[in-house]
Structure formats: C-alpha cells, structure tokens
Amino acid sequence: MHKAQVAILVRSNYWHFPSGPVNGATHRSVPDIMRAVRRAGGEPVLVYQNGQAHPEQWDAVVIPGGNDLHPGWYGQAPHSSVDLNTVDIEFDRFQLTWTRWAVENEKPVLGICRGMQVLNVASGGDLIQNVDHHSDLELLNNPARRREAVHGVHVAPGSGLYDIVGDDYLRVNSIHHQAVNRIGETFQAVAWAPDGVVEAIEGRNAPWQRGVQFHPEDMQEVAPFQGLFQSLVDDAQRTRTNQARG
After folding, report:
1. 138 belongs to the catalytic site
2. Pick the catalytic residue: 27, 70, 113, 176?
3. 217 counts as catalytic
C-alpha cells in the first residue's frame, strides 16, 4: 500500500532560522513531527515557503508551531505583546493559503499551537492576542522540559478528539501566549483549559480536520498524543483509498 503523503508547511530558512525561544529556532519541532508521522505509517513531505508545491500529491497537511500571526490577518491592530520583529507576513500568507486549500478540499489537517491558530484564522475566526499564565518561559526555552504536562484540559465527549484520547480529561504541554477567540464557522471547540481557553478545535462536519494548542510531537511516546498523528495518517490513507476507487 502506498504511504499517505503528509505535507508539513515550513519556512524556507527553517533549518537556518536564527536562535530564539520559539519553535523553528533553538527548539526545532519539525523533526519530531516527521518522526511521529513515520511512526504512524505516513510519509512526511516538507513543503517550503519559497519552494515548489505539489498539492495533488498531498493526502494530509500539518501546520507546525511557531511565531505569532500578524493580527491584520484577522482584522486587529497588534497588541503590545506581539513582537512584530518576529512576525513574517509572507510566511503567514503561505501557511494560510495552503491551510485554506486543505480545508476546502476536505484533506485531513493537524494544526499544532500556532498551527491551530492558523487553521482558525484561515477559516474566518480570530485570536486573543495575549493570554496570561499559558506561557512558561522556562519550558519555552528548555527543550528538555517540553515533554512536561503543565495543565489539564476538558475534552468534549462525542468529539473526534475524545475518540482519540479515550477520556474527557487530558494533561497537556501547552506553551503559548495567544489563543483562539471567535472560532471559524466550519469549526467548533472540543477541548478547554480550566480557565476556559480553547485548547482544541475540529471541523463540524470534518472531524479529521483538527487543531490543538499543545505539542503532541513532544509527547508522542504517550499513546493519546501519538494517537493524533495516527488518526491523521489513518484518515489520510482512507481518503487516498476512497479517491483511488473513484
């Protein structure tokens, strides 16, 4: 059986990005995402911002974590907490374009941290630009501690995420200062932190399209987290098989 091709949307200078306490800098999440995809039986395909894209070959899309989106994408002026020196409008455009394509073409999608925010904005939603107590600088700066669960989330029974986790409670490794606010019309919230911050969304009619505010790639040795990648690859393989049958 042909392996599902899982596109991962990354910046062109990803491997040479200047050091800093964010994904794609001192900590590089993409190798861990690639490993999780392979463990699930899929084939990761790095899609670079300024490289060639072959979407006809993609069976699923992953949007990794990273820096803030420019608030202009969802009609807001920047909050003082947004470091505009790290915002990349053209990279935002690249990820938003292919995320919209994936949603419209009903491809399985997994958005991680910033990726969940990209998924929401691409679907017409907006963000809370600054959330207190959700960004531990020590965890953010220390890759060795990124596997630590920092708080619990309530998972909606009956959701696709609930089916993956097998419980209505999960402890997660969220590290973020922004969050989903108004949710895009084709998505719904399916997990919440104790303070009500949305920690996961999924498609209302396409539960194989999902975003999580935490980092499952860092905790893939634990079944519920690897299960997110397994579900993505299984859904991608099913979609590929159905399309082949016509």
Report:
1. no
2. 113
3. yes
DSSP conformation letters of 33-60: HHHHHHHTT-EEEEEETTS---GGG-SE
Residue 21 banded pLDDT, cuts 50, 70, 90: very low
CA distance 243 to 24: 34
- Whether 79 is catalytic is no
pTM for the structure as a whole: 0.92
Residue 101 to residue 180: CA distance in whole angstroms: 20
pLDDT in tens, 120-146: 999 999 999 988 765 555 555 566 666
Structure confidence at residue 1 (pLDDT): 65
Give 39's contacts (C-beta < 8 A, 6+ positions apart): 220, 226, 229
Q: Which amino acid is located at 78 in the chain?
A: P
List of domains in the chain: 5-245 (3.40.50.880)
Return the bridge partners of 46, or none.
8
**How do residues 53-70 score in pLDDT, each as one tens digit?**
999 999 999 999 988 899
Q: Which of 70, 134, 199, 217 is catalytic?
A: 217
Buried b (16+ CB within 10 A) or exposed e, 114-137: bbbbbbbbbbebbbbbebeebbee
Rounded to the nearest angstrom, the gap between the alpha carbon of residue 123 and the centroid of all alpha carbons in its chain is: 14
